[in-house]
Write a structure and sequence with these properties.
The complex is a heterodimer of chains A (about 210) and B (about 250). Chain A is an alpha/beta fold and about 210 residues long. Chain A contains six helices and 14 strands. In chain A, the strands form three sheets. An eight-stranded mixed β-sheet of chain A has the order 2-1-3-4-14-13-12-9. In chain A, strands 6-5-7-11 form a four-stranded mixed β-sheet, covered by helices on one side. A two-stranded antiparallel sheet of chain A has the order 8-10. By secondary structure, chain B is α/β, with parallel strands linked by helices. In chain B, about 35% of the residues lie in helices and about 25% in strands. Chain B contains eleven helices and twelve strands. Chain B has an eight-stranded parallel β-barrel, surrounded by seven helices. Classes of the chains: A alpha/beta (about 210), B alpha/beta (about 250). Chains A and B meet through helix 1, strand 8, strand 10 and helix 6 of A and helix 6 of B.
Chain lengths: ~210, ~250
């Protein structure tokens, strides 16, 4: 059974990720209930908007510890955009806010040194692999070489360890983490559910984990 | 090193149909929204604009169930506009498949609303839609209500204020060039791109792949939107992208 739980903490566009999951036969449960989250076989944490709002949403529904516990138990977790940023230790958007801390590191605003490009980064960008074959045993295994994904953000992942970076992307001469991974916890800065076939391959691989 | 540009198809929605306005006066039905959205998705479009162009005129919000149906089988970003007047309107759109919202009329009437929306949803979610008409003195005036109502608001001045409010993107439509296939209003586009720190999408006047390349290379647009040439099958998405690739403009192929 492909059971996937999607967290609805009122800071996300749930419809899009749900229809992407359902396209590949997932049995989707949408919930904000901590107990239901604790019993997930796989968890998706979507998110759109500011870090503080995301943290507030997780606190309001008491989801911080249940999600951390899932990570410890190696239950697959996929964070998307703000949801992925919340997996990190801290976000630095309009203040300093404590995230889930599953993947050590911070979330920062793009530096002012980006060359000739606009902020927010809105558009399609290619993924760079961090080393040969490293995608083979991961949810990126079916992503075609040079495939582009859709990004829409002003803040980026700054992981404490390079070992937690699975893919990067380069924008305005600045290379930053696009996919982070620690154990079975994964985070995509881009939106796989909005990145056509290349992105959908990631959704499909996640369901099949 | 410049960013990859986006090629966007714009669906102007009236009731259950996609329509095509010419200078906002005549409205011709050109197709079914779901069929067209899926056609452009299959053709490799980078993004879709879904704009209800009579919502403000008829004083009703967009049909959220219809939006959900239209976007159900497409997996690229969708920006939705049409009489957005509240935080709740935006929440409903985001819950129905919209990724970003485009706001025109209400933002001009209530400039503080943009700040509120940005604070609630983030800059990357809020697009300012500007319908610009040339004045005799060479400047441009902003129009509301789908481009029907004049406001005396100067487009350049308005864009600057909106960027200060935190909007993440500007959709800049030339009323004079829309539907005419005479090429883009390059002075209008450069008037905005010369200072805009956020992405600017140019719309109005697309004629062929060369005109799209001009809007980017000369106008410095970050993305280009078209409707007539797509809906009337005069130009394909791939013809545009191949041409951009040939002339060295980076784009997703």
């Amino acid at each position: 059974m492909k059971n996937v739980t999607v967290v609805d903490y009122k800071v996300a566009n749930i419809y899009n990720i749900c229809k992407a999951l359902e396209k590949f036969g997932a049995n989707v449960t949408i919930t904000m209930d901590a107990d239901t989250v604790s019993k997930s076989e796989k968890l998706v944490l979507p998110g759109v908007g500011a870090y503080e709002a995301g943290v507030e949403g997780l606190l309001r529904y008491r989801l911080m510890d249940p999600i951390r516990d899932l990570a410890v138990r190696q239950v697959p977790i996929l964070g998307i955009c703000l949801g992925a940023q919340l997996l990190m230790s801290e976000g630095h958007e309009f203040g300093v806010f404590q995230g889930l801390g599953i993947i050590p590191g911070t979330v920062e605003h793009f530096p002012s040194t980006l060359k000739d490009v606009k902020i927010p980064h809105i558009g399609w960008n290619a993924l760079n692999t961090v080393s040969d074959n490293v995608w083979n045993d991961t949810i990126l295994r079916s992503v075609p070489k040079d495939a582009m994904m859709y990004f829409n953000h002003s803040y980026y992942f700054n992981p404490a360890s390079k070992d937690d970076v699975l893919a990067t992307t380069t924008y305005g001469g600045f290379e930053y983490a696009a996919v982070i991974k620690k154990g079975n916890t994964l985070g995509c800065q881009f939106h796989p559910e909005k990145s056509a076939d290349a992105g959908l391959s990631i959704v499909e691989q996640f369901i099949q984990l | 090193m410049s960013a990859n540009v986006r090629i966007i198809s714009r669906l102007d929605i009236k009731g259950p149909n996609v329509v095509k306005p010419v200078r906002t006066e005549a409205l011709r039905v050109v197709g079914n929204p779901k069929i067209l959205a899926e056609k452009y998705y299959a053709a490799g479009i980078d993004e879709i604009f879904y704009l209800d162009i009579v919502a403000s005129l008829y004083q009703r919000t967009i049909d959220f169930q219809m939006l959900k149906d239209v976007v159900r089988d497409i997996f690229v970003p969708v920006t939705v506009g049409g009489r957005i007047r509240s935080i709740e309107d935006i929440q409903n759109i985001l819950a129905s498949g919209g990724d970003k919202v485009a706001i025109n009329t209400y933002a001009i009437e209530n400039p503080h609303f943009l700040q509120l929306a940005v604070r609630e949803f983030g800059s990357q979610c809020i697009v300012l839609s500007i319908e610009a008409q040339k004045r005799e003195n060479g400047t441009w005036e902003a129009y509301t209500e789908g481009g029907r109502q004049h406001t005396s608001v100067d487009v350049v001045e308005w864009a600057k204020r909106a960027i200060d409010s935190g909007v993440g993107e500007i959709l800049l439509t030339s009323i004079d060039h829309e539907g005419t296939r005479k090429g883009f209003d390059l002075p209008l586009i450069t008037a905005i791109t010369s200072f805009a720190s956020v992405p600017v999408v140019a719309h109005g006047g697309a004629r062929d792949p060369q005109s799209v390349a001009e809007a980017i290379a000369v106008g410095k647009a970050d993305a280009v939107s078209a409707s007539s040439i797509f809906h009337y099958d005069e130009c394909s998405v791939s013809a545009i992208k191949q041409h951009l690739h040939t002339v060295g403009i980076p784009v997703r192929l």
